[in-house]
């Protein structure tokens, strides 16, 4: 009985949330989403076979003052590309990066899309050491 429990844990670990991944079309992700704090709207779009996301509305307009590159600190938060260079593979958007203008940091990132929710996992090195945020699609 115990070995079946541990086997189940191993299977759940390697299959994500334990439920079969729905067959997601690569372009299902394209659209407009609320940021987790609902202080910005982000448009996800495709460019040259990759997926990107930029702000199309911000509650508090301003500049990218936390950017580590002084030459980029004068750019507007509105229109800022937050998600860059994601590829689609087996239901997951991977090999991309996410920029956090609140800290000025860029993280490796992977995303999954389920229903109207975009699950975004930013991390350094391996995804075990990271944070997950949820972006809600705007219909």
CATH topology: Lipocalin
Q: How many angstroms does the end-to-end distance come to?
A: 46 Å
Number of strands: 8
> Could you say which overall geometry the principal axes of the C-alpha atoms support?
globular
- How does the major sheet shape up? 8 strands, antiparallel, barrel
**Helix-strand string:** HEEEEEEEE
CATH architectural designation:
Beta Barrel
Share in β-strands: over 45%
The spatial strand order of the largest sheet comes to 1-2-3-4-5-6-7-8
Helix content: under 10%
Count helical runs.
1
Mean pLDDT: 86
Kindly give the count of domains: 1
* Rg calc: 17 Å
What is the CATH class? Mainly Beta
Quickly give the structural class: mainly beta
**Sequence stretches where pLDDT stays below 50 over 5 or more residues:** 1-22
Key terms for this structure?
single chain, 139 residues, mainly beta, Lipocalin, disordered N terminus
Q: In words, what does this structure look like?
A:
- The protein is mainly β.
- The chain has a single domain (30-137), classed as Lipocalin.
- The chain is built from one helix and eight strands, in the order αββββββββ.
- It has one helix spanning 2-14, and strands at residues 31-34, 40-47, 50-58, 81-89, 92-100, 105-114, 117-123, 130-137.
- It has an eight-stranded antiparallel β-barrel.
- The model is unreliable at 1-22 (pLDDT under 50).
Question: What is the topology?
Answer:
Blueprint: H1 2-14, E1 31-34, E2 40-47, E3 50-58, E4 81-89, E5 92-100, E6 105-114, E7 117-123, E8 130-137
Antiparallel strand pairs: 1-2, 1-8, 2-3, 3-4, 4-5, 5-6, 6-7, 7-8
């Amino acid at each position: 009985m115990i070995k079946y429990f541990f086997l189940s844990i191993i299977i759940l670990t390697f299959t994500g949330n334990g439920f079969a991944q729905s067959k997601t079309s690569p372009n299902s992700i394209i659209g407009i989403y609320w940021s987790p704090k609902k202080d910005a709207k982000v448009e996800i779009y495709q460019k040259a076979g990759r997926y990107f996301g930029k702000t199309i509305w911000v509650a508090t307009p301003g500049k990218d003052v936390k950017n580590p590159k002084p030459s980029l600190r004068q750019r507007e938060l509105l229109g800022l590309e937050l998600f860059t260079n994601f590829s689609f593979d087996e239901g997951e958007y991977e090999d991309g990066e996410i920029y956090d203008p609140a800290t000025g940091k860029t993280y490796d990132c992977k995303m999954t899309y389920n229903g109207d929710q975009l699950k975004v996992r930013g991390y350094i090195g391996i995804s075990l050491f990271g944070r997950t945020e949820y972006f809600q699609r705007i219909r």
